[in-house]
């Protein structure tokens, strides 16, 4: 058995969720008495030898301008070629946007069993069983993978990364790189904000905030905490906030270490996108709001009174 981890990069930098996948893949290698290699596509500015800190022995790099941006078909073909020529029996990647596009395609090409949304290391004591989230995070399933080649797409922020001393070997991988059928002509990035999908802390607002003119309540607290901002669907639908902030069943699914929900009722469709958060704090004036059932900590109170006090206390604590 040998492990191959796909590292996802954006503008030359390896994504945090891919470092989690690297550490997770290395741990499977340790568990099964083998080694973990990684593969990265596109021109990368990050120092790839640093992957050794996550337990990766060798990084195979396909530095080619045409794979700087994700094209799922082109990426899948390269990964299939790499997995086959390197003899990988387990391919690991993050279950992020790229992973969701690549893993099922790769599964077909390699005739490999796929577990998407894995949340724990495989149990290899009797077969190869991987725990994953099902029903929008309301339950877990243990999936037994019986194919010779296995693919695991790891949910972001579900595996705690530990680092070790070490440097990875870096080598060019000579892959057949097809011309992508889709060309990225421009990228308009939101600047000056912490990306929601990668944020460790998220402050989120709902219809309880009454209107966009009151959003300083959310953004001030987020700024004090170094957090990203999010919102419920009706807030984005009413154009109070941009759609990329909408979390839930039909929006982004996130799993930060801390999720603070202000004036959000906690409808099941909202919870579907946030219930994998490690700690949930709910601020709502209605003690019967459903969100309190999912909360680790709750404050029953008027957000307009409570939130500025929390923001001030955090600022004082941080000397801001
Ligand atoms: P409300 O339900 O109006 O709740 C506002 C809350 O604020 C209340 O609990 C109220 O007590 C509280 N409040 C009011 N004033 C204050 C105050 N001054 N201080 C403190 N608290 C206050 N929703 C999503 O969020 N994400 C999704 O992805 C999503 N997908 C959906 C998909 C489908 C198919 C459907 C049918 C619905 C979906 N919804 C989604 C909508 C969802 O069902 C809820 O309607 C929505 O989440 C409610 O948003 P809200 O909590 O902001 O508003």
In spatial order, strands of the major sheet run 7-10-6-1-4-5-11
What is the domain total for the residues?
Answer: 2
CATH homologous group name of the largest domain: HUPs
Give the low-confidence spans: none
- Helix proportion range: 25-40%
Strand segment tally: 16
Give the distinct bound molecules: flavin-adenine dinucleotide
Between the first and last Cα atoms, what is the distance in angstroms? 52 Å
What structural class should be given to the helix and strand makeup?
Answer: alpha/beta
Helix/strand order, N-terminal first:
EEEHEEHEHEEEEEEHEHEHEHEH
Inertia-based shape: globular
Assess the beta-strand content as a share of residues.
15-25%
Number of H- or I-type helical stretches: 8
The CATH class of the largest domain is identified as Alpha Beta
What value does the Rg take, in angstroms?
Answer: 21 Å
Largest sheet: 7 strands, parallel
Q: So, CATH architecture of the largest domain?
A: 3-Layer(aba) Sandwich
Mean pLDDT: 95
């Amino acid at each position: 058995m040998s492990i191959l981890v796909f590292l996802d990069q954006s503008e030359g930098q390896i994504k945090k969720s891919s470092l989690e996948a690297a550490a997770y893949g290395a741990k499977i290698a340790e568990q099964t008495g083998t080694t973990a290699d990684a593969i990265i596509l596109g021109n990368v500015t990050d120092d790839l030898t640093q992957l050794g800190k996550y337990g990766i022995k060798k990084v195979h790099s396909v530095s080619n301008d045409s794979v700087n941006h994700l094209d799922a078909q082109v990426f899948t073909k390269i990964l299939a070629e790499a997995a086959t020529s390197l003899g990988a029996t387990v391919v690991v990647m993050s279950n992020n946007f790229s992973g969701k596009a690549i893993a099922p395609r790769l599964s077909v090409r390699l005739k490999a069993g796929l577990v998407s949304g894995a949340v724990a290391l495989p149990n290899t004591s009797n077969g190869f069983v991987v725990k994953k989230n099902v029903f929008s995070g309301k339950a877990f399933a243990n999936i037994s993978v019986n194919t010779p080649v296995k693919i695991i797409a790891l949910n972001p922020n579900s595996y705690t990364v530990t680092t070790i001393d070490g440097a990875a070997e870096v080598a060019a991988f000579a892959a057949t790189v097809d011309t992508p059928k889709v060309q990225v002509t421009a990228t308009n990035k939101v600047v000056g904000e912490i990306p929601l999908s990668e944020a460790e802390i998220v402050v989120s607002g709902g219809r309880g905030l009454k209107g966009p003119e009151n959003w300083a309540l959310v953004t001030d607290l987020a700024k004090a905490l170094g957090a990203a901002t999010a919102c419920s669907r009706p807030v984005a639908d009413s154009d109070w906030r941009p759609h990329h902030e909408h979390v839930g069943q039909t929006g982004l699914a996130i799993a930060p270490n801390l999720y603070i929900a202000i004036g959000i009722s906690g409808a099941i469709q909202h919870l579907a996108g946030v219930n994998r958060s490690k700690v949930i704090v709910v601020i709502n004036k209605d003690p019967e709001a459903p969100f309190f059932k999912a909360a680790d900590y709750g404050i029953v109170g008027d957000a307009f009174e409570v939130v500025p006090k929390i923001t001030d206390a955090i600022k004082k604590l941080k000397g801001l």
